[in-house]
Amino acid sequence: xxxxxxxxxxxxxxxxxxxxxxxxxxxxxxxxxxxxxxxxxxxxxxxxxxxxxxxxxxxxxxxxxxxxxxxxxxxxxxxxxxxxxxxxxxxxxxxxxxxxxxxxxxxxxxxxxxxxxxxxxxxxxxxxxxxxxxxxxxxxxxxxxxxxxxxxxxxxxxxxxxxxxxxxxxxxxxxxxxxxxxxxxxxxxxxxxxxxxxxxxxxxxxxxxxxxxxxxxxxxxxxxxxxxxxxxxxxxxxxxxxxxxxxxxxxxxxxxxxxxxxxxxxxxxxxxxxxxxxxxxxxxxxxxxxxxxxxxxxxx
Length: 300
Hints:
The protein is of the alpha/beta class. It folds into two domains: 4-26 and 142-288, Rossmann fold; 34-129, Rossmann fold (3-Layer(aba) Sandwich). Helices cover 39% and strands 17% of the residues. It contains ten helices and ten strands. The protein has a six-stranded mixed sheet, sandwiched between helices. A four-stranded parallel sheet has the order 5-4-3-6, sandwiched between helices.
C-alpha cells in the first residue's frame, strides 16, 4: 500500500466555460500545495535525514500540507499563519498535530509577521525553516503538474495562475512556455507589490487568500510572466461561488483564476488552462456568499 505522500498528483483536468481546470483540491491535503510540500520534505530528508522539526510561514494551504505529510514522515511541525487565514485550515493543522502560531498580516520585515515569527521558532526550537518562497524544491515539486497537463492536452495557449510563493506558476509555466510558447498570466490581489511592479495602480481591496500582497517571492521567475491580472478579495469570493454552481469545488484563489481565465479566453482564445488550487470547504465566505452573480458584470 502507498504512503499518503505517494498519493499526491494525477488530478483530473476538466472543462468549464471553455477553460481547463486542474482539480488540485483532490490531493490528499486538499490543495496543490501537497506537491511542493512533499518535494521540500523529501529534499530535506535527502540532505539531513528523517525526523527533527520543521517550521513554515504560510497563509494556510502549505501549512495543511506540511502538517499532513510532515507528521506522516516523522517531523514535528510548527506553522506561523496569518490571522485572517481560513479558520478551517488553522483547525485542520492543529488536528493533524502541528503547533500553530497566528500572526497579523503585516509586511515580512515586521517582527510580528509570519516570516519573522517562523525565523524565531526555527532558532528557539532548532527547527528547519523550509522557506517555501525561495526553496527550489517548491517549483521542482510542481513540475509534475505541468507534465500531467502535457499528457492530457495537445496544446496550451495560455496558463493562468495566482502568485503566492511563485512555485506553481514557475514550475508549470516554465514547462508550458518551453513546449508551446504558452502565454503566462499571473493573478494577484489588487494593489499588491507584484501588480505595482507591472504598472497597475489599483487600490488594495483585500487579499485573496493564498496570494502574497507585500513582496514578490524569490521563486517567481518574472521572465516567464507575460501579463498580470488583478482580482479583489470580493471578486474572488463571488466568482468562486459562481463556479461552485458549475461543479468546480474550488476555493478563493480558484475564483480569482476563473475570472482571470475568462478574461484570457476572451482576449486571446485558444486553450486556456488554470488550477483549482484548494477546496471550497476551506472557505466559509464562499459558502456563505448569497445570490450568485446573475447581475454581476464582467470587469472587462
